[in-house]
Amino acid sequence: MPVRNTATHYGSVAMFLHWLIAALIVVNIALGLYFPDLPRADPSKFTLAQIHKSIGLTVLVLSVARVLWRLVNPVPPLPADMNGALKLVARTSQFLLYVLIVAIPLSGWLMVSASRLGLPTPYFFLFDWPNLPKIGDHEMWEDVHVYLAWSAIVLVPIHIAGALYHQFIRRDDVLKQMMPGTR
């Protein structure tokens, strides 16, 4: 499998980043929906919050790499016979997902950085991830982070539905373009 994208298929780097980021996002959505409702006294709340933040920072770094990789690699085209409106929806949703995979973890980092506590994030408990300069207040960034996360919770299933639409209704190769081991 080629490393770079081709005219008909995503390359191994794009596929690896796509599937790894997707898996991390699913885990982080689940954590983000679970740990905030735990009682403050629950000892696992702090640990889960730090894991959530560490995964988010990992998504941010990988997403920046993915965006840069995409800028220098052509994207396989959508099927020529696909309706123009559906192409617009597909490209718009992809663009919005790219925005979200950078904006969600960035807003989380800004939220943590704006906290009155000023604590760094213990990145997977290996080292302290530094805070950004304080911009705005914690509550504002928390609102932004939650709003963006809910946008992803809506958009990710739409993206998956689109991939399944291509696979099972249109029966074209769009999903296969991103699946390892397919041609």
Description:
This protein is mostly helical and 183 residues long. It has one domain. The protein is 63% helix and 3% strand. The protein has a two-stranded antiparallel sheet. The model has no long low-confidence stretch (mean pLDDT 96).
Which terms summarize this structure?
mainly alpha, two-stranded antiparallel sheet, 3% strand, 183 residues, 63% helix
Write the layout of secondary structure elements.
Elements: H1 12-34, H2 43-71, H3 84-113, E1 121-123, E2 127-129, H4 138-170
Helix pairs in contact: 1-2, 2-3, 3-4
The helix/strand order is HHHEEH
- Per DSSP, the total helix count is 4
- Principal-axes shape call: elongated
Strands ordered across the widest β-sheet:
1-2
Number of domains: 1
Helix content: 55-70%
Average pLDDT reading = 96
Low-confidence stretches: none
Largest sheet: 2 strands, antiparallel
What radius of gyration results from the CA coordinates? Answer: 18 Å
What would you call the structural class?
mainly alpha
- Residues in β-strands, percent: under 5%
Termini separation: 9 Å
Q: Would you report the number of β strands?
A: 2
